[in-house]
Amino acid sequence: MSTGIPFVRDMDFEYGKAQRITPRIQRVVARNPSSFTFYGTGTYIVDSGEPGGNVAVIDPGPLYDDHVAALLSAIGDATVSHILVTHTHIDHSPAAAPLKKVTGAPTYGFGPHGSGQAPDKMRIMEGGDLEFTPDVVLKDEDVIEGDGWTFEAVHTPGHTSNHVCFALKEEKVLFSGDHVMGWSTSVISPPDGDMQVYIASLTKLLARDDTTYWPTHGPAITDPKRHVEALITHRERRDQAILTALAKGKTTVPDMVAYIYRGVPRNLHPAAGHTVLAHLIHLVEIGRVVCDGGPTAASEYNLVD
After folding, report:
1. What is the CATH class of 232-303?
2. What is the helix (H) or strand (E) element at residue 167, kind and residue range?
3. What is the pTM (predicted TM-score) of this model?
4. 28 in helix, strand or coil?
5. Residues of the chain with pLDDT > 90: what percent?
6. Cα(242)–Cα(16) distance, rounded to whole angstroms?
7. Other CB atoms closer than 10 Å to residue 33's CB: what's the count?
8. Which residue intervals of the chain are DSSP H helices?
């Protein structure tokens, strides 16, 4: 199944070793590869590019002792002043706790897991780091300053409701977390994931002038607008594929997944089911599809007459 997305999957790195990838940015990759994390979690260390001054750490990563040790080795004698978290999945935020304990640096994020949802609708799925609560709660467009570097918080809900990207103004770089990745599309998994909100967050990025994205998983995206436009088109085509499946009598999520993702390894079908459900919720919201009761993984769906 052709996606039309200009994926980039080649990546030069060594586990546990800091690699300077731009004048201000180092990356350390955790040894947690999987079909959802690609090579593993890439934790970024941002400094001024000159000796001295403080540093920021973005997405400390999973709670692996060897990864935390590699981060501390890369930081060396520098002072960590900020720990920034894009969102609270267990491959992104848990290592913030030991890093904070050693360095004393405060944590920054949009909020705890599920905090981007309306309080009366807050539902949390597994895979979230329920232990993390940021010391400093960020809002969209908040500015974070250090020695020789400046970040703008860009709230980008969809993958999770509390997802936030960080724009490094000095290099016109966006640390895009899991919102935009170069190696794969993002999984949008209800209840915390929301397809309609995700597409709006992608569209929001098109108005920005960032020249490069550094996702938490995989290599840099050097033509970000083209990439984001392709992701939006992909989601529109997925909507259409679901409508086509419904027209062929595929009325349940498992049947739709088996039909739409018939060329995809079956071990990835459960994740695909979460994304299909997110699309179905969106299609119900805009009046293209109806279901028996509220839209759930167990519901039966039909086209609107």
Report:
1. mainly alpha
2. strand 164-168
3. 0.94
4. strand
5. 89
6. 42
7. 14
8. 65-75, 96-103, 195-205, 224-247, 253-260, 269-285
For the chain, the structural domain boundaries read: 19-225, 232-303
Per-chain mean pLDDT for the chain:
94
What pLDDT was estimated at residue 125? 56
DSSP H or E stretch at residue 42: strand 42-46
Given a cut of 80, is residue 120 above it in pLDDT? no
Asked if 188 and 274 count as a contact pair (C-beta separation under 8 A), the reply is yes
* pLDDT reported for residue 136: 98
Return the ∠ at Cα 159 (arms to 252 and 80), rounded to 5°: 155
Name every residue whose Cβ is closer than 8 Å to that of residue 283 and which is 6 or more positions away in sequence. Answer: 239, 242, 243, 289
**CATH architecture for residues 19-225:** 4-Layer Sandwich (3.60)
Q: Which residue has the tokens 């597994």?
A: 126
Q: Residue 293, Cβ neighbours under 10 Å: how many?
A: 8
User: Residues 139, 208, 53, 24: what is their CA dihedral angle, to the nearest 10 degrees?
Assistant: 140
Burial class (CB in 10 A: 0-12, 13-18, 19+), 193: buried
Cβ–Cβ under 8 Å, residues 87 and 162: yes
Within 10 A of 177 (CB to CB), how many other CB atoms are there?
Answer: 29
Residue 235 to residues 64, 118, 217, 276, Cα–Cα distance (Å): 34, 24, 20, 10
Q: Are 163 and 110 in contact (CB under 8 A)?
A: yes
Q: pLDDT per residue over 2-39, tens digit each?
A: 468 999 999 999 999 999 999 999 999 999 999 899 99
How far is residue 108's CA from residue 83's CA, in Å, rounded to a whole number? 6
pLDDT tens, residue by residue, 238-247: 999 999 999 9
Q: pLDDT tens across 177-204, in order?
A: 999 999 999 999 998 999 999 999 999 9
